Amino acid sequence: MKIDAIKPFLKDTFCGDITYQSPLADATWYRIGGPADVLCSPEDEESLIGLIAACNAASVPYLLLGDGANMLVHDDGFRGVVISLKEYFSKAFVRGNKLFAQAGTYLNDVLLLAMDNGLSGLEYLSGIPGTIGGALYMNAGIDQGTIGDVVFSISVLDANLQIRSVPASELDFLYRRVPQLQDAIILGGTFDLQPKAEADIRAVRTDLLQRRAARQPLDHPSCGSVFKRPEGHFVGKMIQDLGLKGLIHGGARISERHAGFIINTGTATAADVLWLIQYIEEQVQKAYDVTLEREVKLVGFAENY
Ligand SMILES: Cc1cc2nc3c(=O)[nH]c(=O)nc-3n(C[C@H](O)[C@H](O)[C@H](O)COP(=O)(O)OP(=O)(O)OC[C@H]3O[C@@H](n4cnc5c(N)ncnc54)[C@H](O)[C@@H]3O)c2cc1C
Protein backbone atom coordinates (compact mmCIF):
# COMPACT_ATOMS: atom_id res chain seq x y z
CA MET A 1 0.00 0.00 0.00
CA LYS A 2 1.23 3.46 -0.92
CA ILE A 3 0.40 4.78 2.52
CA ASP A 4 3.08 2.51 4.04
CA ALA A 5 5.71 4.79 2.53
CA ILE A 6 4.83 7.64 4.86
CA LYS A 7 4.19 5.63 8.03
CA PRO A 8 7.76 6.18 9.33
CA PHE A 9 7.29 9.96 8.87
CA LEU A 10 3.94 9.83 10.69
CA LYS A 11 5.41 7.78 13.53
CA ASP A 12 8.68 9.65 14.06
CA THR A 13 8.29 13.22 12.79
CA PHE A 14 4.68 14.32 12.43
CA CYS A 15 3.18 16.40 15.25
CA GLY A 16 -0.59 16.18 15.51
CA ASP A 17 -3.42 13.65 15.67
CA ILE A 18 -3.39 10.50 13.53
CA THR A 19 -6.22 8.00 13.01
CA TYR A 20 -5.72 5.04 10.72
CA GLN A 21 -8.75 3.64 8.88
CA SER A 22 -10.81 6.63 9.93
CA PRO A 23 -14.47 6.31 8.81
CA LEU A 24 -15.28 9.34 6.66
CA ALA A 25 -19.02 8.82 7.16
CA ASP A 26 -18.38 10.30 10.61
CA ALA A 27 -16.70 13.35 9.09
CA THR A 28 -19.20 14.36 6.42
CA TRP A 29 -22.68 15.88 6.47
CA TYR A 30 -23.97 13.06 4.26
CA ARG A 31 -22.94 10.48 6.92
CA ILE A 32 -21.78 8.34 3.99
CA GLY A 33 -18.39 6.97 3.01
CA GLY A 34 -15.77 4.37 3.81
CA PRO A 35 -12.51 4.95 5.66
CA ALA A 36 -9.55 7.14 4.85
CA ASP A 37 -6.26 5.24 5.01
CA VAL A 38 -5.27 7.86 7.55
CA LEU A 39 -6.81 11.06 8.89
CA CYS A 40 -4.25 13.61 10.11
CA SER A 41 -4.75 16.81 12.06
CA PRO A 42 -1.43 18.68 11.96
CA GLU A 43 -0.61 20.70 15.07
CA ASP A 44 0.95 23.64 13.27
CA GLU A 45 2.11 24.92 9.89
CA GLU A 46 5.46 23.14 10.11
CA SER A 47 3.73 19.78 10.62
CA LEU A 48 1.33 20.49 7.77
CA ILE A 49 4.16 21.39 5.39
CA GLY A 50 6.11 18.29 6.45
CA LEU A 51 3.07 16.10 5.86
CA ILE A 52 2.43 17.49 2.37
CA ALA A 53 6.12 17.15 1.49
CA ALA A 54 6.10 13.51 2.68
CA CYS A 55 2.97 12.75 0.64
CA ASN A 56 4.46 14.40 -2.44
CA ALA A 57 7.75 12.54 -2.11
CA ALA A 58 5.96 9.17 -1.86
CA SER A 59 3.22 10.04 -4.41
CA VAL A 60 0.56 9.50 -1.75
CA PRO A 61 -2.69 11.33 -2.60
CA TYR A 62 -3.98 13.74 0.01
CA LEU A 63 -7.23 15.59 0.48
CA LEU A 64 -8.13 18.67 2.51
CA LEU A 65 -11.29 18.04 4.51
CA GLY A 66 -13.30 20.94 5.90
CA ASP A 67 -16.51 19.93 7.63
CA GLY A 68 -17.47 17.59 4.79
CA ALA A 69 -20.64 19.59 4.04
CA ASN A 70 -20.12 19.46 0.30
CA MET A 71 -18.66 15.98 -0.13
CA LEU A 72 -19.88 12.57 -1.22
CA VAL A 73 -17.29 10.00 -0.20
CA HIS A 74 -17.07 6.63 -1.98
CA ASP A 75 -18.28 3.60 -0.04
CA ASP A 76 -14.71 2.26 -0.12
CA GLY A 77 -13.38 5.53 1.30
CA PHE A 78 -10.24 7.39 0.25
CA ARG A 79 -6.86 5.80 -0.47
CA GLY A 80 -4.45 8.34 0.89
CA VAL A 81 -4.16 10.98 3.59
CA VAL A 82 -7.13 13.09 4.62
CA ILE A 83 -6.03 16.30 6.31
CA SER A 84 -8.26 18.12 8.76
CA LEU A 85 -7.47 21.63 10.03
CA LYS A 86 -10.47 21.81 12.37
CA GLU A 87 -8.52 20.77 15.46
CA TYR A 88 -5.51 23.12 15.40
CA PHE A 89 -6.25 25.80 12.81
CA SER A 90 -9.40 27.27 14.32
CA LYS A 91 -8.55 30.66 15.73
CA ALA A 92 -10.42 33.81 14.74
CA PHE A 93 -10.16 37.40 15.91
CA VAL A 94 -11.20 40.93 15.03
CA ARG A 95 -9.00 44.01 14.58
CA GLY A 96 -10.93 47.15 13.69
CA ASN A 97 -13.09 46.35 10.66
CA LYS A 98 -11.02 43.30 9.73
CA LEU A 99 -11.79 39.75 10.83
CA PHE A 100 -9.17 37.02 10.51
CA ALA A 101 -10.10 33.34 10.68
CA GLN A 102 -8.02 30.21 10.27
CA ALA A 103 -9.20 27.63 7.74
CA GLY A 104 -10.51 25.10 10.26
CA THR A 105 -12.81 27.57 12.03
CA TYR A 106 -16.51 26.83 11.66
CA LEU A 107 -18.14 29.38 9.39
CA ASN A 108 -20.97 29.78 11.87
CA ASP A 109 -18.54 30.70 14.67
CA VAL A 110 -17.04 33.35 12.41
CA LEU A 111 -20.47 34.80 11.61
CA LEU A 112 -21.28 35.00 15.31
CA LEU A 113 -17.91 36.66 16.04
CA ALA A 114 -18.60 39.27 13.33
CA MET A 115 -22.11 39.87 14.64
CA ASP A 116 -20.95 40.19 18.27
CA ASN A 117 -18.47 42.82 17.11
CA GLY A 118 -21.10 44.73 15.13
CA LEU A 119 -19.46 43.88 11.79
CA SER A 120 -21.57 43.27 8.72
CA GLY A 121 -20.85 41.48 5.44
CA LEU A 122 -20.83 37.80 6.37
CA GLU A 123 -24.39 37.42 7.68
CA TYR A 124 -25.65 36.36 4.22
CA LEU A 125 -23.84 33.09 4.79
CA SER A 126 -26.03 32.24 7.80
CA GLY A 127 -27.05 28.60 7.79
CA ILE A 128 -24.36 27.45 5.36
CA PRO A 129 -22.51 24.63 7.12
CA GLY A 130 -18.77 24.15 6.90
CA THR A 131 -15.43 25.71 7.69
CA ILE A 132 -13.72 28.85 6.48
CA GLY A 133 -11.36 26.74 4.32
CA GLY A 134 -14.27 24.99 2.61
CA ALA A 135 -16.25 28.21 2.22
CA LEU A 136 -13.31 30.00 0.57
CA TYR A 137 -12.50 27.04 -1.67
CA MET A 138 -16.14 26.82 -2.79
CA ASN A 139 -16.84 30.57 -2.73
CA ALA A 140 -19.87 29.62 -0.67
CA GLY A 141 -22.87 31.89 -0.69
CA ILE A 142 -26.38 32.61 -1.82
CA ASP A 143 -27.86 34.82 -4.53
CA GLN A 144 -27.42 37.96 -2.40
CA GLY A 145 -23.72 37.43 -1.81
CA THR A 146 -20.79 35.07 -1.46
CA ILE A 147 -17.87 34.92 0.91
CA GLY A 148 -15.67 36.29 -1.87
CA ASP A 149 -17.47 39.65 -1.66
CA VAL A 150 -15.80 40.44 1.66
CA VAL A 151 -12.42 38.75 1.32
CA PHE A 152 -9.48 41.07 1.90
CA SER A 153 -6.80 38.40 1.51
CA ILE A 154 -6.30 34.65 1.82
CA SER A 155 -3.39 32.83 3.36
CA VAL A 156 -2.37 29.75 1.37
CA LEU A 157 0.28 27.11 1.16
CA ASP A 158 1.26 27.19 -2.49
CA ALA A 159 2.55 24.41 -4.74
CA ASN A 160 6.13 25.13 -3.56
CA LEU A 161 4.97 24.72 0.04
CA GLN A 162 5.50 28.42 0.69
CA ILE A 163 3.02 30.32 2.83
CA ARG A 164 1.68 33.26 0.85
CA SER A 165 -0.86 35.96 1.47
CA VAL A 166 -2.92 36.43 -1.68
CA PRO A 167 -4.86 39.70 -1.97
CA ALA A 168 -8.48 39.49 -3.10
CA SER A 169 -7.54 41.45 -6.23
CA GLU A 170 -5.60 38.38 -7.47
CA LEU A 171 -8.53 36.01 -6.99
CA ASP A 172 -11.58 35.42 -9.19
CA PHE A 173 -14.51 34.51 -6.97
CA LEU A 174 -16.69 32.72 -9.51
CA TYR A 175 -19.85 30.72 -8.94
CA ARG A 176 -18.78 28.11 -6.31
CA ARG A 177 -15.23 28.17 -7.65
CA VAL A 178 -12.04 30.18 -7.31
CA PRO A 179 -9.71 29.03 -10.11
CA GLN A 180 -6.56 30.28 -8.36
CA LEU A 181 -7.36 28.15 -5.28
CA GLN A 182 -8.03 24.83 -7.03
CA ASP A 183 -4.67 23.33 -5.98
CA ALA A 184 -3.92 25.54 -3.00
CA ILE A 185 -4.11 24.62 0.65
CA ILE A 186 -6.03 27.38 2.35
CA LEU A 187 -4.73 28.33 5.78
CA GLY A 188 -7.08 31.22 6.55
CA GLY A 189 -8.78 34.35 5.37
CA THR A 190 -8.99 38.03 6.30
CA PHE A 191 -12.33 39.72 5.74
CA ASP A 192 -13.06 43.41 5.28
CA LEU A 193 -16.35 44.13 7.07
CA GLN A 194 -18.51 47.17 7.73
CA PRO A 195 -19.79 48.43 11.10
CA LYS A 196 -23.52 47.93 11.56
CA ALA A 197 -25.93 47.64 14.48
CA GLU A 198 -25.86 44.12 15.88
CA ALA A 199 -29.68 44.01 15.86
CA ASP A 200 -29.76 44.64 12.10
CA ILE A 201 -27.22 41.90 11.43
CA ARG A 202 -29.16 39.53 13.68
CA ALA A 203 -32.41 40.30 11.83
CA VAL A 204 -30.86 39.29 8.48
CA ARG A 205 -29.45 36.15 10.06
CA THR A 206 -32.74 35.14 11.69
CA ASP A 207 -34.67 35.69 8.47
CA LEU A 208 -32.24 33.57 6.45
CA LEU A 209 -32.20 30.77 9.02
CA GLN A 210 -36.00 30.68 9.08
CA ARG A 211 -36.21 30.58 5.30
CA ARG A 212 -33.72 27.71 5.16
CA ALA A 213 -35.62 25.76 7.79
CA ALA A 214 -38.83 26.19 5.79
CA ARG A 215 -37.39 25.29 2.38
CA GLN A 216 -34.61 22.79 2.99
CA PRO A 217 -34.77 19.20 4.26
CA LEU A 218 -32.57 19.93 7.26
CA ASP A 219 -33.92 16.90 9.13
CA HIS A 220 -31.91 14.53 6.91
CA PRO A 221 -28.21 14.33 6.04
CA SER A 222 -27.37 15.91 2.69
CA CYS A 223 -24.73 18.00 0.92
CA GLY A 224 -27.08 20.92 0.19
CA SER A 225 -27.66 21.58 -3.51
CA VAL A 226 -26.15 18.75 -5.51
CA PHE A 227 -25.92 20.74 -8.75
CA LYS A 228 -24.94 24.27 -9.69
CA ARG A 229 -27.66 26.46 -11.11
CA PRO A 230 -27.44 26.40 -14.91
CA GLU A 231 -27.84 29.73 -16.68
CA GLY A 232 -31.53 30.49 -17.17
CA HIS A 233 -32.86 27.48 -15.21
CA PHE A 234 -33.63 26.34 -11.67
CA VAL A 235 -32.49 22.79 -11.04
CA GLY A 236 -35.13 22.15 -8.37
CA LYS A 237 -37.92 23.22 -10.75
CA MET A 238 -36.58 21.11 -13.65
CA ILE A 239 -36.41 18.03 -11.40
CA GLN A 240 -39.88 18.74 -10.04
CA ASP A 241 -41.37 19.27 -13.51
CA LEU A 242 -39.86 15.95 -14.61
CA GLY A 243 -41.81 14.29 -11.80
CA LEU A 244 -38.66 13.12 -10.04
CA LYS A 245 -39.36 14.68 -6.64
CA GLY A 246 -39.38 11.99 -3.96
CA LEU A 247 -37.69 9.39 -6.20
CA ILE A 248 -35.93 6.79 -4.04
CA HIS A 249 -32.93 4.64 -4.87
CA GLY A 250 -31.76 2.40 -2.03
CA GLY A 251 -31.43 4.68 0.98
CA ALA A 252 -31.19 7.91 -1.02
CA ARG A 253 -34.10 10.09 -2.01
CA ILE A 254 -34.67 13.24 -4.07
CA SER A 255 -36.05 15.55 -1.41
CA GLU A 256 -39.77 16.31 -1.46
CA ARG A 257 -39.11 19.67 0.14
CA HIS A 258 -36.33 20.85 -2.20
CA ALA A 259 -35.76 18.77 -5.33
CA GLY A 260 -32.21 20.14 -5.69
CA PHE A 261 -31.25 18.13 -2.58
CA ILE A 262 -30.64 14.38 -2.49
CA ILE A 263 -31.01 13.20 1.08
CA ASN A 264 -29.75 10.19 3.00
CA THR A 265 -32.82 8.58 4.55
CA GLY A 266 -30.56 6.71 6.97
CA THR A 267 -29.13 3.78 5.02
CA ALA A 268 -27.91 5.45 1.82
CA THR A 269 -24.64 4.37 0.27
CA ALA A 270 -22.56 6.61 -1.95
CA ALA A 271 -23.58 4.34 -4.83
CA ASP A 272 -27.27 5.06 -4.09
CA VAL A 273 -26.68 8.83 -4.16
CA LEU A 274 -24.54 8.64 -7.28
CA TRP A 275 -27.25 6.61 -9.05
CA LEU A 276 -29.76 9.41 -8.43
CA ILE A 277 -27.24 12.07 -9.47
CA GLN A 278 -26.58 10.33 -12.77
CA TYR A 279 -30.28 9.63 -13.34
CA ILE A 280 -31.16 13.31 -12.84
CA GLU A 281 -28.32 14.34 -15.17
CA GLU A 282 -29.58 12.00 -17.91
CA GLN A 283 -33.22 13.05 -17.57
CA VAL A 284 -32.42 16.78 -17.53
CA GLN A 285 -30.12 16.41 -20.52
CA LYS A 286 -32.83 14.55 -22.43
CA ALA A 287 -35.72 16.84 -21.56
CA TYR A 288 -34.02 20.27 -21.52
CA ASP A 289 -30.75 19.73 -23.41
CA VAL A 290 -29.00 21.14 -20.33
CA THR A 291 -25.78 19.60 -18.99
CA LEU A 292 -25.85 19.87 -15.23
CA GLU A 293 -22.65 20.70 -13.39
CA ARG A 294 -22.15 19.13 -9.98
CA GLU A 295 -21.58 21.34 -6.97
CA VAL A 296 -20.93 18.37 -4.67
CA LYS A 297 -17.34 17.10 -4.62
CA LEU A 298 -16.97 13.37 -5.22
CA VAL A 299 -14.19 11.89 -3.10
CA GLY A 300 -12.53 8.53 -3.71
CA PHE A 301 -14.33 7.91 -7.02
CA ALA A 302 -12.57 7.29 -10.31
CA GLU A 303 -12.66 10.29 -12.62
CA ASN A 304 -15.60 10.66 -15.02
CA TYR A 305 -18.13 9.22 -12.60
C1 LIG B 1 -27.81 21.64 4.43
C2 LIG B 1 -26.76 22.27 3.56
C3 LIG B 1 -27.01 23.52 3.00
C4 LIG B 1 -26.02 24.13 2.19
N1 LIG B 1 -26.27 25.38 1.67
C5 LIG B 1 -25.32 25.99 0.94
C6 LIG B 1 -25.54 27.31 0.42
O1 LIG B 1 -26.58 27.93 0.62
N2 LIG B 1 -24.55 27.89 -0.31
C7 LIG B 1 -23.36 27.25 -0.53
O2 LIG B 1 -22.48 27.83 -1.18
N3 LIG B 1 -23.13 25.99 -0.07
C8 LIG B 1 -24.07 25.36 0.67
N4 LIG B 1 -23.85 24.09 1.13
C9 LIG B 1 -22.60 23.37 0.78
C10 LIG B 1 -21.47 23.55 1.82
O3 LIG B 1 -21.99 24.00 3.05
C11 LIG B 1 -20.43 24.55 1.33
O4 LIG B 1 -19.86 24.14 0.09
C12 LIG B 1 -19.30 24.73 2.34
O5 LIG B 1 -18.52 25.82 1.97
C13 LIG B 1 -18.43 23.49 2.48
O6 LIG B 1 -17.50 23.72 3.53
P1 LIG B 1 -16.74 22.51 4.23
O7 LIG B 1 -15.78 23.06 5.21
O8 LIG B 1 -17.71 21.52 4.76
O9 LIG B 1 -15.96 21.91 2.98
P2 LIG B 1 -15.81 20.37 2.54
O10 LIG B 1 -17.14 19.86 2.11
O11 LIG B 1 -15.09 19.61 3.60
O12 LIG B 1 -14.88 20.56 1.27
C14 LIG B 1 -15.35 21.19 0.10
C15 LIG B 1 -14.16 21.40 -0.85
O13 LIG B 1 -13.27 22.34 -0.27
C16 LIG B 1 -11.95 21.78 -0.17
N5 LIG B 1 -11.33 22.31 1.05
C17 LIG B 1 -11.84 22.32 2.30
N6 LIG B 1 -10.98 22.93 3.15
C18 LIG B 1 -9.91 23.30 2.41
C19 LIG B 1 -8.68 23.97 2.70
N7 LIG B 1 -8.35 24.36 3.94
N8 LIG B 1 -7.81 24.20 1.69
C20 LIG B 1 -8.10 23.79 0.42
N9 LIG B 1 -9.24 23.16 0.09
C21 LIG B 1 -10.14 22.92 1.07
C22 LIG B 1 -12.18 20.28 -0.10
O14 LIG B 1 -11.02 19.55 -0.48
C23 LIG B 1 -13.35 20.13 -1.06
O15 LIG B 1 -12.88 20.11 -2.40
C24 LIG B 1 -24.80 23.46 1.93
C25 LIG B 1 -24.58 22.19 2.50
C26 LIG B 1 -25.54 21.60 3.30
C27 LIG B 1 -25.26 20.24 3.92
Q: Strands, helices and their partners?
A:
Blueprint: H1 7-12, E1 16-23, E2 35-42, H2 45-57, E3 62-65, E4 71-73, E5 78-84, E6 92-95, E7 98-102, H3 107-116, E8 119-120, H4 132-138, E9 141-142, E10 145-146, E11 151-157, E12 163-167, E13 185-192, E14 194-195, H5 198-215, H6 235-241, E15 248-249, E16 252-254, E17 262-264, H7 270-288, E18 297-299
Parallel strand pairs: 2-5, 3-5, 4-18
Antiparallel strand pairs: 1-2, 6-7, 7-13, 8-14, 9-10, 11-12, 11-13, 15-16, 16-17
The structure holds flavin-adenine dinucleotide (FAD).
Textual characterization of the structure:
Helices cover 26% and strands 26% of the residues. The model has no long low-confidence stretch (mean pLDDT 97). It folds into 3 domains: 2-84, Uridine Diphospho-n-acetylenolpyruvylglucosamine Reductase, domain 2; 92-214, Uridine Diphospho-n-acetylenolpyruvylglucosamine Reductase, domain 3; 217-299, Alpha-Beta Complex (Uridine Diphospho-n-acetylenolpyruvylglucosamine Reductase, domain 1), CATH 3.90.78.10. A 5-stranded antiparallel β-sheet has the order 6-7-13-11-12, covered by helices on one side. A 4-stranded mixed β-sheet has the order 1-2-5-3. It has 305 residues and is an alpha+beta fold. Strand 11 (151-157) and strand 12 (163-167) form a beta hairpin. Flavin-adenine dinucleotide is lined by residues 29, 63-71, 85, 103, 128-131, 133-135, 137-138, 140-142, 176, 185-186, 216, 218, 222-224, 297.
